[in-house]
Amino acid sequence: MGAQAGAASRVLARAVPFPYAFELARTALVIIDMQRDFIEPGGFGASLGNDVTRLQAIVPTVAAVLEAWRGAGGFVVHTREAHRPDLSDCPPAKRLRGNPALRIGDVGTMGRLLIAGEPGTEIVAALAPRPGELVIDKPGKGAFHATPLQAELERRGIARLVFMGVTTEVCVQTTMREANDRGYDGLLVEDGTESYFPAFKAATLAMISAQGAIVGWTARSDELIAKLAR
Questions:
Q1: How far apart are CA 87 and CA 92, in angstroms?
Q2: Has 227 been annotated as catalytic?
Q3: Which of 37, 90, 141, 171 is catalytic?
Q4: 90 given a catalytic annotation
Q5: pLDDT per residue over 146-188, tens digit each?
C-alpha cells in the first residue's frame, strides 16, 4: 500500500531514519486513545498509580497538529479503548492482570472505567472529534483488532498513516505494528505521543525507526505542521 513520492507528495526531510513522503489525500491522521480515562485524574491510568500529567502535557501539541491537518483537509481517525458494558469483549487475562486500585469495568470518578458510553471514555475536550471524522472503539491495544478500521481505510484509499496519542509503547506501538503488517507506511509524531515512563517512550521511538524503518518513521510536529501549511 506504500504511496510513492510524486507531484502531490509532501516530504518530511528530517524524518527518522530517512525522509517520509506522503500524499494528503491518501494519508490519515490517527490519534490513539486521547481519552479522559488515560489523561485525567480519577481515570484508569491513574488507578494504575501513574502520573497522568505526563500525558496531559502533549495535548497542546496534538491539538496543533490536528488543527493543521484539518485545515489542510486531511482525514482524521480517533480511537478509544472501550469495552462493552457486559465486558464480553474483555478477556479475564486482560481485566485481572496486575493489582490496580480499580479494574476495567469498576466504577471510578468518571463512571465505569474503559466502558463504552461512560464519561471516562470520552476524548478530551481539546481534541474532540468533529462530524465526518472516524471514531473507532477498540477492545484491545491495537486499533485494527476486532474493529472496522482497515475496511474504513481501504474504502477511502488510504495508504499511509500518521500517528499520535498514548501510550507510546502500548496502544500506539501495537497499532503501528498492526499497520505495518497490513502494508501501511506509518509515521509517529515524536512530541505528539507520550508514556507514563520516559524510558519506554525513548525505547519505542528507537525500535520503530530501527533497521531502515522496520516498523515506521518518526518526525517532529513542527516539520509536519510546516508541510501542512503550504
A1: 9
A2: no
A3: 171
A4: no
A5: 999 999 999 999 999 999 999 999 999 999 999 999 999 999 9
